[in-house]
Amino acid sequence: MMMLMVTSMLRKMKLNHQKEKRKNKRINSCRSLRKISPYL
């Protein structure tokens, strides 16, 4: 019982982490674009 709960929690965390990563990627790309934009 406990193991199931723990594994499900871990899976959720993993999913959340991937989502955050994706979000950060988007944010980083925006940031880099902003950095480059003055030179465009």
Structure description:
This protein is mainly alpha-helical and 40 residues long. Helices cover 88% and strands 0% of the residues. It has one helix and no strands. The protein is rod-shaped and about 60 Å long.
Which structural traits does this protein have?
40 residues; 1 helix; mainly alpha; single chain; Alternative protein NEMF; rod-shaped
Strand percentage: under 5%
Q: Note poorly predicted spans.
A: none
Counting DSSP E segments of at least 2 residues, the number of strands comes to 0
Mean pLDDT across all residues, rounded? Answer: 79
Instruction: Provide the helix percentage.
Output: over 70%
Query: Tell me, what's the shape?
Result: rod-shaped
Number of helices: 1
Taken in chain order, the helices and strands follow as: H
What is the straight-line distance between the termini?
58 Å
User: Any idea what the radius of gyration is?
Assistant: 17 Å
Q: Structural class from helices and strands?
A: mainly alpha
- Biggest sheet architecture: none
Region (Disordered): 15-40
Protein name: Alternative protein NEMF
Organism: Homo sapiens (Human)
Biased composition (Basic residues): 15-34
Give the secondary structure arrangement, pairings included.
Blueprint: H1 2-36
Biased composition (Basic residues): 15-34
Protein name: Alternative protein NEMF
Region (Disordered): 15-40
Concise structural overview:
With 40 residues, this protein is an all-alpha fold. Helix content is 88%, strand content 0%.
